[in-house]
Amino acid sequence: MSVVSLTLTKQQIDVLKESLNKYNDIIPPQYANFKIAEPHLNITVYNSNKVVFQGHKAVEIAQKYMSKQIFPQAGSDETGNGSYFGPLCVAAVYIDDEIYEKIKHLKIDDSKATTDAYINEIAPYLREVVPHSLVVLDNTKYNQIQKSLNQNAMKAMLHNQVFLKLSEHVKMPALTVIDQFTPKQTYFNYLDANKPIYHDLKFETKAESKYLAVAAASIIARYAFNQALLQLSDHYGMSIPSGAGKTADEAARAFINRFGEDELKHVVKLHFANTKRLK
Ligand code: MN
């Protein structure tokens, strides 16, 4: 076998191109954006993210990218934890072979690596066809709980919740992955007070680029977060941004001017440094 054709994620393509930078790329053919043509090593990256590997050296490289996705699988991810405004959203997703057939055309990637526009476009369909669970912790509750729990403890609580909820809908697979934000032991220490606890988890960092279920969970969580910011913007009649930089500071000042300092706890994560900067 000396030709392999794979559809890779954007992240994988970046890694691939990086690994090939010792070779000179040549002008790519139509509908392609990158091509290497060396003895036994011919690689073309198409705009559709399809990559054609020709020659035995190229096929050797391709093997590193051949999908080792095992179905059924489940996975979870969170979003909103780094944004001053808006909730903390955690989702868990289940994918088996049948479900994979319905979503493989979406070329799901980590939500951070895809645009919000694409997430908003595909998430409604994803939510329709993929068994999942979602928890959105609004700012009011977040600020209450944060008085006694740090953010990682809160995340652990929410991940545990989404796995328990998901397990009510589907038979949980042996391969159930959590995108690791804290070491396994710490995660379960955080959960000591929470009963029941979902135990059968594989902890992996950057899991969203390795497991489709985690990538899908990431998208569903991000979509919920985006929707929540839109709802807040709508409710207060002002633009509520994501992030924790200058734009967030400015929006928070404008918010206080219009609605008073006491209302802030309903829209931001008070323990962020942004709050101190407002004074
Ligand atoms: Mn994550």
What would the keywords be for this entry?
single chain, 279 residues, alpha+beta, TATA-Binding Protein, Nucleotidyltransferase, domain 5, 2 domains, five-stranded antiparallel β-sheet, five-stranded mixed β-sheet, 10 helices, 43% helix, 19% strand, binds manganese (II) ion
Account of the protein in words:
Helix 4 (116-129) packs across helix 8. The chain contains 10 helices and 10 strands. The mean pLDDT is 93. The protein is an alpha+beta fold and 279 residues long. The termini are far apart. The chain folds into 2 domains: 3-63, 2-Layer Sandwich (TATA-Binding Protein); 73-231, Nucleotidyltransferase, domain 5. Helix content is 43%, strand content 19%. A hairpin with a 3-residue loop joins strand 4 (41-46) and strand 5 (50-54). Bound molecules: manganese (II) ion. The site of manganese (II) ion has 3 residues, from strand 6.
The CATH topology label of the largest domain is: Nucleotidyltransferase, domain 5
The portion of residues forming beta strands comes to 15-25%
Task: Please tell me the total number of domains.
Answer: 2
The ordered H/E elements are EHEEEEHEEHHEHHEHEHHH
List the ligand species. manganese (II) ion
| Low-pLDDT regions | none
Helix content bin: 40-55%
